[in-house]
Design brief:
single chain, Rossmann fold, about 40% helix
């Protein structure tokens, strides 16, 4: 544990703060700082003006410092090494209507409020995509975790990559709560039906469940292998 982490834990205990709330506040502050940096950066505005004149863009949302060469890699907070620009998608995407050919969002939307944030984010995805453009969304597969718990089946937990369970998750219920909440970072857990419903409501069509590394658009098959055992892969198209 780093000195910064130790100091943070000491401060939480000393001030009797809720760790989840403190984490949310810290994240929102970083998001606001990112938006302020954009607002006062001439280089950012020049970049956005240039991109608004382009078509067929590939957008990697929530790249988290793991940018893909040739893509527009964005995140709500700064990751200077491989980030094209800071973008908090909850506040909109600064690209032109129909300018994007494909959107990749891996382990992002479970961090959004299902009723309060996701609808607007999916509408923004729909807006920036051109006709025939596709979005690929990857989330923890809530149904598979629930089935493993209800059946109390070690084989199912093994398929998810959790047999034995982690030392800090002593029971299946503890593991289930971690997937559903992850210390306050996760705001909603999805199955294919629920994610498909949300995409349809935002105007998407041809919603389909995919497998790891398989896509109707080969350029979208850039999934991270470490997430493969426990992830749900869903794609949809803008008509």
């Amino acid at each position: 544990m780093t000195l910064k982490q130790r100091m943070g834990r000491w401060l939480v205990r000393r001030l009797h703060l809720n760790p989840g709330l403190l984490m949310e506040i810290r994240f929102e502050v970083r998001c606001r700082l990112g938006r302020a940096k954009n607002a006062f950066s001439p280089a950012y505005h020049r970049k956005i003006r240039r991109m608004r004149g382009e078509k067929g863009l590939s957008l990697n949302v929530g790249s988290g410092g793991r940018g893909v060469p040739g893509w527009l890699n964005t995140d709500a907070v700064g990751h200077p090494s491989d980030q094209t620009f800071i973008c908090d998608v909850r506040r909109g995407i600064p690209l032109s209507d129909g300018s994007v050919a494909r959107i990749f969002a891996e382990h992002l939307i479970e961090h959004l409020g299902f009723a309060t944030e996701l609808p607007e984010v999916l509408r923004e995805f729909h807006r920036v995509l051109g006709p025939g453009g596709r979005v690929r969304i990857i989330v923890p597969d809530g149904r598979r975790f629930a089935e493993a718990y209800v059946r109390n089946d070690r084989a199912l937990w093994a398929q998810l990559g959790f047999d034995p369970l982690p030392a800090d998750m002593p029971t299946p219920m503890a593991m289930l709560n971690h997937v559903f909440h992850q210390g306050g970072e996760h705001h909603f857990t999805y199955d294919c039906e629920t994610l498909g419903w949300a995409l349809g409501r935002a105007g998407f069509a041809d919603v389909r469940r995919c497998a790891f590394g398989e896509s109707a658009d080969p350029l979208l098959a850039i999934d991270r292998r470490e997430h493969a055992p426990y992830s749900l892969y869903v794609e949809a198209m803008k008509p």
